[in-house]
């Protein structure tokens, strides 16, 4: 069974913008997919549908066994626990240290102190930031902040990781570093979806690529 499945999904915002038209897409567990396309093409909207941030109007959508058309009760919360998300602007808590930013996720999910202090070091090490655990976000470079946000996204070991323009604010070197970490996470079995308008980044890798243009999805490379 696919881990993510969209069948002819359509999304129109209340103001009439058609963000997605007839989008069909399937990913299996452990897949890595780039979604490219110009600004306004619908990339963020697609990710928002996957984690239940926006509703869709037509078609069907399932993520890891959850039917997004009718989530009820605490199903949305359960779905979101199984999805890690990374944004272009990191969204770290400014007055919390690196370690606290990452630990917060586990704390919010009810992990105890012992479990949190067991999980934190390997996660920070995975993104190369164990030595920055006590720094505040403002003391870090953009690349380092994005790596903190990756640590935060995966510390709860979600099977699906969504990255919305994760390299949008980064230079070429930091972008490559972020993509390398995403590939490493994929290699341990996490399904990864990355949106980007950076065609160069996509060309220098050989993962599957789809493109969104004006809300329609096109296969680029499988
Ligand atoms: P991308 O991520 O590729 O830049 P988006 O998914 O953000 O594209 O946007 C797709 C289209 O939907 C654009 O025309 C955008 O203006 C519109 N859109 C996105 N979010 C909203 C919103 N909250 N309300 C109305 N229109 C929106
Ligand atoms: P990005 O290109 O980084 O995805 P956007 O500018 O598309 O960022 O979106 C930033 C925020 O503004 C999002 O929450 C999106 O839903 C909202 N938004 C985008 N386009 C519109 C729009 N046309 N009308 C209202 N809200 C929008």
UniProtKB/TrEMBL annotation:
One of its GO terms (molecular function) is ATP binding. It comes from the Bacteria. Signal peptide: none annotated. Gene3D superfamilies: P-loop containing nucleotide triphosphate hydrolases. GO terms for biological process: cell division. Pfam families: ABC_tran. Belongs to the ABC transporter superfamily. Part of the ABC transporter FtsEX involved in cellular division. This is Cell division ATP-binding protein FtsE. The gene is ftsE.
